[in-house]
Design a protein that fits this description.
The chain is an alpha+beta fold. Helix content is 37%, strand content 39%. The chain has a six-stranded mixed β-sheet.
Length: 153
């Protein structure tokens, strides 16, 4: 027979475990899967010229740093996507990894880009990136993209 004091302790521990599990289950916005889906979703939005999605998911302070060191603000990136200056036939995201730091998430990965370009060296290339996301008001948003390596000349 279990002593009453031990039974109360075990009940309390079980309740804590259940509550913790429910809180994490309800907070799907911070799961690794949700962060990686958004990461791929942003590349898909660039490919499909879904500027409404980009406007919603990029932070107002967003900064996109290209491999050559040039950068774009949120509005500059959206304008480039809308006008077709940032275009591609495909943007295949691979090798993703996510580090979770509370409400901040760091994603690394690789993108294989295929596009129409008169320069053969710029038609088919890969970039490696680091992206930073945060959860704000219950929603994930991208703060930064930085290309850290590229096969472009």
């Amino acid at each position: 027979m279990i002593q009453p004091q031990v039974a109360r302790y075990m009940t309390a521990m079980l309740l804590i475990a259940l509550i913790t599990g429910l809180v994490h289950a309800q907070d799907a916005g911070t799961s690794t899967t949700a962060v990686l889906e958004l990461d791929r979703g942003i590349d898909h939005a660039i490919l499909e010229k879904d500027v409404a999605f980009l406007a919603q998911k990029l932070a107002s302070s967003f900064r996109f740093t290209h491999g050559d060191g040039k950068f774009q603000s949120k509005s500059e990136l959206i304008d480039a996507v809308r006008s077709g200056r940032m275009n591609a036939k495909t943007r295949e995201v691979t090798d993703q990894d996510v580090e979770m730091h509370g409400d901040v998430f760091i994603v690394t990965g690789q993108i294989h880009v295929v596009r129409d370009n008169p320069d053969p060296a710029r038609r088919d290339y890969r970039i490696w990136y680091v992206r930073v996301y945060r959860k704000r008001d219950g929603q994930l948003e991208q703060l930064s993209h930085r290309t850290v390596k590229s096969t472009l000349p």
